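Today's session is about reading a structure prediction critically. Students often jump straight to the picture, but the first step is always the sequence itself: look for stretches that repeat, for charged clusters, for runs of hydrophobic residues. Only then move on to the predicted structure, which in these notes is written as discrete structure tokens rather than atom positions. Here is the chain we will use throughout the hour.
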Amino acid sequence: MSDKTYFLWQGGRETGPFDEDALRAQVSAGALSPNVLVRSSQGGDWEQLSGVISPPRSTPKKSFPIKQIRLSRRVVVILMIVAVAVLFLRSHMFEEIIANIRKASEEARIEKQQAVELKILQQVSDDFEKLNKTLEASSDYYRYNDSVTALETKVQAVLSETQNEDIKKRVNQGVAAFYLAYDFKIASQVLKEFEKLRSVIDVGLSYNEYSKMVLDAKINMDALLPQINDNSLKSELRNIMSCFVRARTVWNEGYISEARQEWSQAYELMKPFRFKLLLNKVDRDLKVNPEVDDD
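Below is the predicted structure for this chain, in token form.
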């Protein structure tokens, strides 16, 4: 403890005396300003406290030296590998997530498109089925043809809702078959006359019976041909009929072997004609059921 004491001038009066340690403690505690006036108890002038006593000692903070850690090359390489592996795994994980999102989106798009296409096929199928019934009941080519034209207009509007070229091809193929269907309907009636002739020839009949049946078949054919608009179909039917007529002529002249050749020729001409009739029916019936596949 210091022996020196001091008087303070506070609040307009003199107080004290106080030793240096007491004054220094009050300054440290903030209870006393270092600018307060003091004088020695032994006499002297008034002066600021800060000029008389030294400021309180501050306790130095302990410092701890930072140890530098030196990493070996092997440790550095391992850390780098681990870092790269983590980045790779994160990148791969994100790629997989993005791929799954894209896959789900594509599956949803395809499912939606398939629903649209199924709706189109169902609608077109209903229209085709109605037109098939119209064909069966129709006896007027021009009225039937108007129905097909109206159907084609409606179908093209429906097909504008899809980009599926296979569906467009299948439906348009069906429409084209309907345009020919009336001609094939009449042609099939002519073909039935030819089938009658073939059945009796295979069984066996006299020349007179055959001659009468050929004449009847030609009369029926001539009555039906004006209802056919496709000239190529008319030509094919006439060629078949000509074979049966020529067979009648050469049989009458006694050349039965030549007659058989004419019949064989007629049968050969009938084969592709039957196929055309069948193909036209398949093209129309294929569209009635949306689940039927071209494959």
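Discussion point for the tutorial: The radius of gyration is 57 Å.
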